[in-house]
Specification:
single chain; two-stranded antiparallel ribbon; 10 strands; alpha+beta; 12% strand; 47% helix
Length: 469
């Protein structure tokens, strides 16, 4: 009883005043914990995302643990039978020692978790001194969604692994989130798009008024693809971007936003070379595989895949296989579009896997993985609002906005961004016209803009098991 309710042992030993005081203090601690858990959850979340408060939590946890151990040991000394033999005393001391060790171990694990959380918040999420040229200025940090009814986040998969010349963004997606309902639309951008526009009035638009490409260069310009902009634009025009902690991400926020007719508020960048570690920390993900997905392989160098992920429903993938499910393209028909579809399904699977129970059970591994793999310009001050929004997203639908490859970008040489903006605005039920201008015409014959007549498909259906015949 003294372990569960410190103070009752003092009462049993006849120390009524001390026992009453300690028991009341313990009951007060229990009551405060219950009140915070049931009535002040938002405040608890806010504290858990504040590095200073997290440090005080570690100190408080240590003080409570010392209090519990001191009461337990002193209670045993008061209550142990004086006439007991050496064996009984040794056994009693061993039991108390084991109980104290268990409490100390639990306290150490709790402190370790709090410190991991503190390090994650400080390292990944930008503070007030962060330099970003594109993120919004939030007036009400407690309710930022009153200012941003639709939140647009750029999701980048950057590959700086072996064999790569610096960083390229092989995966570029936009998550457009209704902050009231949590409904999310995913938009995939092809890595080989050229002539990516910049918002009118910006220095980069003045430099590239018809988009990012070289009008005097060859027809196909890989160094002007979307996946090369993260590296080359800051290297060539650092002075046009301004102070930034991640100039490549700022460039892509401006350009991808202009291409899709959206204001991109924040970015989240994941290092694909270590993506497997993040999935492993979650305990793997479950997806449906509708055709053989290659692991490795290179079409240009005629290097075959080392193996394949076999088709099947509800396939549980470890970190390495999840990475190749999202990236594999060797001899896959319509490789880029197929890979984009699988990447959207990977995002959906991660959202489903990240339940509160699973996150807490694997938190230390997740925090360690997040420190090394994730970059973002989301500020610490609005993290509690993101936690609330994340819960809404888990209970809402995730859809895919099809940009119509057949009509709007049959190749990456001259995509019809105006038509794609029209599709995006229609699917998001936007009432205002896109703020970005239509790119100036080029010598290439423009494609006929297309508009969608059906709502964006739900990813639950798009990611279902429909094996190829």
């Amino acid at each position: 009883m003294g372990v569960l309710l410190p103070g009752v042992s003092y009462l049993a030993a006849g120390r009524r005043r001390l026992g009453t005081a300690v028991t009341l203090l313990t009951l007060s601690l229990y009551g405060a914990a219950a009140y915070l858990a049931l009535a002040r959850r938002d405040d608890v979340v806010t504290w858990a995302l504040n590095p200073t408060i997290l440090l005080w939590m570690v100190v408080g946890l240590g003080v409570i643990a010392l209090y519990w151990v001191a009461v337990l040991v002193s209670s045993y000394k008061m209550l142990r039978p004086l006439a007991a033999g050496p064996g009984a005393r040794l056994a009693g001391s061993a039991v108390i020692g084991l109980v104290c060790f268990g409490m100390a171990s639990s306290t150490a694990l709790g402190a370790q978790t709090l410190m991991a959380q503190r390090q994650l918040v400080e390292k990944v999420f930008s503070g007030d001194q962060s330099k970003s040229q594109t993120r919004p200025k939030i007036k009400n940090t407690k309710d930022p969604w009153a200012q941003i009814p639709r939140l647009n986040i750029l999701l980048l998969g950057a590959d700086d692994g072996e064999g790569r010349d610096n960083t390229r963004t092989d995966s570029v997606m936009i998550a457009s989130i209704d902050t009231r309902t949590g409904k999310t639309a995913l938009i995939s951008l092809s890595r080989n798009w050229m002539r990516m526009p910049f918002p009118e009035g910006t220095p980069l638009h003045k430099e590239y008024p018809t988009g990012y490409w070289d009008p005097n260069g060859p027809k196909d310009q890989p160094n002007h693809y979307l996946d090369a902009m993260y590296r080359f634009v800051p290297a060539e025009h650092r002075d046009l971007i301004g102070p930034s902690d991640n100039p490549g991400a700022d460039v892509l926020k401006l350009s991808a936003g202009a291409a899709m007719g959206l204001k991109l508020h924040y970015y989240v960048q994941v290092n694909l070379a270590g993506f497997a570690q993040l999935v492993e920390a979650l305990g793997g993900i479950t997806v449906n595989i509708n055709y053989k997905v290659p692991v490795g392989g290179n079409d240009d160098k005629k290097i075959p895949a080392s193996r394949y992920l076999e088709p099947g429903p509800n396939r549980h993938l470890n970190g390495v296989d999840a990475l190749w499910f999202a990236r594999g393209r060797y001899q896959v028909q319509g490789a880029d579009v197929a890979r984009q579809a699988r990447q959207r399904c990977t995002v959906k699977a991660i959202v489903e896997r990240a339940t509160p129970q699973n996150v807490l059970a694997n938190y230390l591994d997740l925090a360690k993985a997040g420190e090394n793999l994730v970059r973002t310009d989301i500020p610490q001050t609005i993290l509690p609002a993101f936690v609330t929004l994340g819960q809404r997203m888990k209970n809402a639908s995730i859809t895919n906005i099809d940009l119509d490859k057949k009509h709007n970008y049959p190749s990456g040489l001259n995509p019809d961004y105006a038509a794609m903006r029209a599709l995006v605005q229609q699917h998001l039920n936007a009432t205002a016209k896109p703020s970005t201008p239509k790119p100036k015409p080029t010598t290439t014959t423009p494609h006929k803009p297309t508009t969608a007549k059906t709502p964006a498909p739900d990813l639950a259906e798009a990611c279902a098991y429909h094996p190829e015949k």
